[in-house]
């Protein structure tokens, strides 16, 4: 048992609050020291973060809250660099923040602190990048189907509610009936 424990590398925890233009980063090193900084959503800042994480002793587990599509470039870069990336549920984060600080007050450094605390407690999900996992084409196809079906429904409702009643007021009776009726 002692041999197994001696061979494990220290784990550095990284919490990133994703936003549109800049991200709040909170890093807890394996010795307990914390470092906080902001970074923009740009390739040079991604490179600086990756080089900093590569220089740390041990492995890094990076937690982030998926926000729109803003998290995808950074998560992809972290995964391809060999870091473990996990995601935090936004609803769980909001409830945890409310319980932790006893308020709904929200800001980026506080969110990064909540993400780090949830990471330390193990309340996260494994992040799966669609490009790396090979689901990207399927995901894009599903999004396209959703867009087309939503547009089709909008056109149908527009016809039923606006255009057809002008010329065929009784059309609503026949729109959803079958030939057997």
UniProtKB/TrEMBL annotation:
Domain Transposase IS110-like N-terminal: 14-169
Domain of life: Bacteria
GO BP of this protein: DNA transposition
Gene Ontology molecular function: DNA binding; transposase activity
Entries under PANTHER family matching the protein: TRANSPOSASE FOR INSERTION SEQUENCE ELEMENT IS1111A (PTHR33055)
Protein name: Transposase family protein
């Amino acid at each position: 048992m002692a041999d197994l424990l001696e061979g494990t590398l220290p784990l550095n925890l990284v919490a990133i609050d994703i936003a549109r233009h800049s991200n709040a980063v909170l890093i807890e090193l394996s010795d307990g020291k914390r470092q906080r900084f902001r970074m923009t959503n740009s390739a040079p800042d991604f490179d600086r973060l990756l080089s900093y994480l590569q220089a740390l002793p041990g492995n890094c587990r990076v937690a982030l809250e998926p926000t729109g599509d803003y998290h995808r470039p950074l998560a992809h870069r972290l995964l391809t660099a060999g870091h473990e990336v996990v995601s935090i549920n936004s609803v769980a984060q909001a409830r945890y923040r409310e319980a932790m600080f006893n308020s709904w007050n929200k800001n980026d450094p506080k969110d990064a602190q909540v993400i780090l605390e949830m990471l330390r407690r193990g309340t996260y999900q494994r992040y799966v990048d669609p490009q790396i996992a090979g689901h990207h084409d399927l995901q894009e196809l599903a999004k396209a189907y959703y867009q087309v079906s939503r547009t089709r429904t909008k056109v149908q409702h527009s016809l039923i509610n606006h255009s057809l009643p002008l010329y065929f007021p009784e059309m609503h009776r026949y729109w959803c009936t079958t030939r057997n009726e």
